[in-house]
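Title: Prediction job returns without error message
Component: structure pipeline
Severity: low
Priority: P3
Assignee: unassigned

Description:
Job completed but the reporter wants confirmation the result is attached to the right record. Sequence as submitted:
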Amino acid sequence: MSHAKGTFDVKLAPQGSEDTSDGAKLARMSIDKQFSGDLDATSQGEMLSAVTQVQGSAGYVAIEKVTGTLAGRSGSFVLQHSGLMTRGAPQATILVVPDSGTGELEGLTGSMKIIIEDGQHRYELEYSL
């Protein structure tokens, strides 16, 4: 397995109206990211989330298409996210969608870890080509 590390900036924009009924609040957002480091790329995607009435508990799923270069190889691939936060404790799985790689990234497999510290977003991508 190979490893890629770097930082990214993310912009989330609400899409449509948020469900404000009793219980969990449901929302849909667009995702725009700019990756730098070993992955020099942009991504666009969609996220669905549910925020509960318990402080720090929520869930989300997302799909994002990443386009750019990874370790000097150009192409695109898709990431699938599944995340939970239980009373502030985060847990997320972010996987490369099988057979989504294009160009020089065809055949890409792997998983990504997101680290958020002091307001800065970092990624660690473990992958195989």
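Comment from assignee: result matches the submitted record. The mean pLDDT is 94.
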